[in-house]
Amino acid sequence: MKYMIMAGALLLSSSISSATGVYTVGAGKLTCEDFIRSKSNQAESFQISQWVAGFITSFNFYSTGKPATPETAEAMHKSLEVYCTKNPKEMIVYAAAVLVKQYRSEQ
Fold first, then answer.
1. CATH code at position 58
2. For the chain, how many structural domains are there in total?
3. Residue range(s) defining the domain that contains residue 88
4. Where is the signal peptide (predicted)?
5. pLDDT of the chain along its 107 residues, tens only?
């Protein structure tokens, strides 16, 4: 229950991003730096990773081209970690888009 409240608070506190021109809610508005810092908080790290998984799933659902298919959820999490370590100021939504492009090119 505690984690549900934390997740809800995060979602409510994350507003729509109009400055970037991308409609983003929830963990997608966080930065890669936030994700890297979340390593010490398993629930927060998992929530961000699941947001990215949902982004990839949505892309695959609506796309007519090649799907973005990470090997496993753990591999996706690791790819996100690698990207975010190199790009700490990047928003999670853009990191997720980079992963989609990467996974599609691996097909």
1. 1.10.890
2. 1
3. 2-105
4. 1-19
5. 444 444 444 444 445 444 556 788 899 999 999 999 998 999 999 999 999 999 999 999 998 888 898 889 999 999 999 999 999 999 999 999 999 999 988 86
Distance CA 62, CA 57 (A): 9
Distance CA 47, CA 53 (A): 10
Whether 12 contacts 37, CB under 8 Å:
no
Amino acid at 83: Y
* Terminal alpha carbon distance of the chain: 39
Going from the C-alpha of 56 to that of each of 2, 9, 19, 64, the distances in angstroms are 27, 23, 23, 14
Retrieve residue 1's tokens. 């229950």
